[in-house]
Amino acid sequence: MITAIVMIKADVNRIPEVAEAIAEIDGVSEVYSVTGGVDLIAMVRVRRHEDLAEVIPGRVNKVPGVLSSDTHISFRAYSKHDLESAFAIGW
């Protein structure tokens, strides 16, 4: 599974509607309203790298109210469980 973190700037007057529309897109697992330099963060999970083009520029960026986006593709996921296993000393 390929995970992309998409940081989205949206029309401030339409953030709830934009978030809901993005959350309905196949391949988008979550959408967060956040503080900072962006308005929304969408988690995109797809099977193939090529599917990212369909989901992000093909659908997410075309949602009315999306002004711009910045996509980060993850190489590896680290969960609390994974980190505890990596640093455990065999107890």
From TrEMBL:
Pfam families: AsnC_trans_reg
Gene3D superfamilies named in the record: 3.30.70.920
Ranges in coiled-coil conformation: none
Domain Transcription regulator AsnC/Lrp ligand binding residue range list: 6-76
Protein name (Swiss-Prot/TrEMBL): Lrp/AsnC ligand binding domain-containing protein
Lineage: Bacteria, Bacillati, Actinomycetota, Actinomycetes, Streptosporangiales
